[in-house]
């Protein structure tokens, strides 16, 4: 498991061991601990990953203005002296068009099965759509505490009205339901208030991850997601969804320089040129933007080598999906 995206506060890479077979990290003779899993669900692009990063004050999940940036269920871990929240950030629930889309929806369903609290994030700039209804149907009758999180209040003209419409989609629900309106992006007090609400719901449990762990992604997965985030920001039209990324090698020089070698995977030869751009300009820009982010979060100098490769039709190819880490 994890080498972590380090917290910018610590500037260090930490490694978290695998939880023990009984699933817990006991604090022997220590105070009683509460811990649990919290799923962050919602349709694409409502701000789930932004909220997760704000909960943790660090970046464990990719965010971008494009819907469907998150593909895996990313876990982020928040630990106090006696409490631990394991957040499961899920890909936006949507109508799947290909095997990748199906994988993404499965990630959401498996996340919901096993959590203690559900956060349903909605975008208050707009009234509910069919996709919100799809999410509401999945979660309404689950017998677990649910908090409706109305996001983007900073940019919403009729936040209160929109919230009413979202609330109505949960009508008939019998289990405890809370709600909060906030801006995941620039409302730290409201975000920490929501985190406190979640802490109140945690059952008595030993910790699932060691203190100091911020995520259960490997550092390679984390870096690959940052590269993909930058690629998705730069690429136009449909192409972003035909792009995957992976990091194949990560070595550290004695002077601390991190040498990271990654690949941007596309489906067609024609796409390769689009990613590379004239004279390699586009690829250079993607690499520079990703390197900057990596350096900020690692607090180390980074050399990032990027190559573009073609795996024909990878989004429809189960084996390729597995190879790219979507399993
Ligand atoms: N104005 C405003 N924008 C926000 C806020 N929170 C998130 N955003 C923006 O909304 C966009 C989507 O955010 P993400 O966090 O990537 O959304 P997501 O729900 O994880 O998206 P998927 O990965 O597609 O499921 C980004 O451009 C964010 O910057 C907010 O509170 N206010």
TrEMBL record:
Main localization, broad class: cytoplasm
GO BP annotation list: ribosomal small subunit assembly
Keywords: Cell membrane, Cytoplasm, GTP-binding, Membrane, Nucleotide-binding, Ribosome biogenesis, RNA-binding, rRNA-binding
Span list, region Disordered: 1-35
MF-aspect GO terms: GTP binding; GTPase activity; ribosomal small subunit binding; small ribosomal subunit rRNA binding
G3 as annotated region, ranges: 89-92
Function: An essential GTPase that binds both GDP and GTP, with rapid nucleotide exchange. Plays a role in 16S rRNA processing and 30S ribosomal subunit biogenesis and possibly also in cell cycle regulation and energy metabolism.
Record family assignment: Belongs to the TRAFAC class TrmE-Era-EngA-EngB-Septin-like GTPase superfamily. Era GTPase family.
Protein name: GTPase Era
Organism annotation: Deinococcus hopiensis KR-140
């Amino acid at each position: 498991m994890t080498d972590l995206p380090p917290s910018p506060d610590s500037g260090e890479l930490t490694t978290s061991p695998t939880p023990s077979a009984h699933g817990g990290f006991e604090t022997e003779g220590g105070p009683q601990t509460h811990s649990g899993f919290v799923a962050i669900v919602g349709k694409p692009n409502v701000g789930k990953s932004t909220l997760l990063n704000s909960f943790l004050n660090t970046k464990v999940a990719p965010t971008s203005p494009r819907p469907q940036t998150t593909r895996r269920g990313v876990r982020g871990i928040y630990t106090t002296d006696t409490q631990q929240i394991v957040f499961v950030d899920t890909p936006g629930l949507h109508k799947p068009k290909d095997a990748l889309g199906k994988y993404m929806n499965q990630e959401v369903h498996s996340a919901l099965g096993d959590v203690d609290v559900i956060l349903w994030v909605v975008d208050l700039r707009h009234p509910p759509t069919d996709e919100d209804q799809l999410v509401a149907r999945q979660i309404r009758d689950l017998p677990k505490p649910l908090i409706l999180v109305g996001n983007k209040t900073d940019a919403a003209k009729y936040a209160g009205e929109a919230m009413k419409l979202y609330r109505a989609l949960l009508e008939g629900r019998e289990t405890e339901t809370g709600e909060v309106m906030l801006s995941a992006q620039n409302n730290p007090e409201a975000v920490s208030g929501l985190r406190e609400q979640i802490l109140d719901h945690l059952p008595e449990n030993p910790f699932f991850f060691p203190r100091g762990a911020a995520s259960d992604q490997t550092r390679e997965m984390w870096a690959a997601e940052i590269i993909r985030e930058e690629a998705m920001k730069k690429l136009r039209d449909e192409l972003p969804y035909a792009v995957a990324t992976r990091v194949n090698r990560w070595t550290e020089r004695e002077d601390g320089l991190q040498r990271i070698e990654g690949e941007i995977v596309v489906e067609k030869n024609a796409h390769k040129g689009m990613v590379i751009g004239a004279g390699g300009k586009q690829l250079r820009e993607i690499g520079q933007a990703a390197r900057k982010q990596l350096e900020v979060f690692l607090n180390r100098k980074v050399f990032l080598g990027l190559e573009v490769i073609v795996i024909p039709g990878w989004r429809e190819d189960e084996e390729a999906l597995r190879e790219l880490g979507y399993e």
